[in-house]
Amino acid sequence: xxxxxxKPTQEGIQLACDIISAGDVVAIPTETVYGLxxxxxxxxxxxxxxxxxxxxxxxxxxxxxxxxxxxxDTVAEIPEDAMKLAEVFWPGPLTIILKKKDIIPDExxxxxxxxxxxxxxHPVVLEIISKTRLPLAGPSxxxxxxxxxxxxxxxxxxxxxxxxxxxxGGECNIGVESTVVSLAGKQPILFRPGFxxxxxxxxxxxxxxxxxxxxxxELAKDEKVLSPGLKHKHYAPKxxxxxxxGDFEKYKLLVESENATALCFDEYADRLNVKTVCYGSQxxxxxxxxxxxxxxxxxDEIGAGKVYAxxxxxxxxxxxxxxxxxxxxxxxxxxx
Length: 336
Ligand code: TXA
Ligand code: MG
Description:
With 336 residues, the protein is α/β, with parallel strands linked by helices.
């Protein structure tokens, strides 16, 4: 299969709509990361997504909508708390998990009776959903296990020969995937931290949002998990990454003594006598989020073997950054 890259002009968008309506997959930019989109109401179309990504069948897909009518069509019920979050954070980087309707096939939700729904804010994906009038299943557009792509060329590198079309809408401005919160049970549970923070949701809901196990610590192999993405290997570069929690002088001594590669904040690069890859300023979690996945892929490009990463803040958007880095590091953290 030939994979084309097109700008999201009217022709590009029309072609994307035609491919999706015919049951195939298109890579489309969103404000978080690029996604692989297909008709969420057709099991066959969604099977093409799993195939293109080599994604395990037990990991459910997020369904993207463009208006509240589609939301009502896809979930059994919209509780008050869900409406509150949607009114504040949609369109935007938040996925809300609720009980699903039968129109969403089991293949999309990995057999679970819930579905994660998100109304993205990026104009290109919104236009395609509105035009096709289809809820679209859309995982990140990486091969399974790799860092999520935040530009069209990276999607192309992972997906060439596997999908017919990539729409090139430039760089994603958030850089990490949406916050995933479940409102399907008695209490709100955060399954994946993102740009919309736990504190922001608690402000709106006026109640506690529980942090799911698996976000800041590794789950045991046999542990029961409510969100399958928490247990899958993810974001992993080929290099062996370890997060270092300690002051800069000790960090410098360690990386230099082992001649490892430093995955560091911008302001420290000049002070290290080893190869460095930067992932934003130490005091700016939002920029770290934009840069992290690029940085992880860059480690592979420069052939890094052993990598020591500087520990990010875990506050606010920092928790999203830390969660991705922690998984890239296979949960290896050393306190110096
Ligand atoms: O920002 C995003 O959310 C991007 C863009 C393309 O919209 N999409 C994305 O999808 O990151 P994906 O498939 O890479 O990640 C979906 C995550 C997985 O960790 C999955 O386990 C979880 O959401 N998930 C999806 N549906 C779920 C459900 N019904 N219950 C629990 N977890 C669910
Ligand atoms: Mg993903």
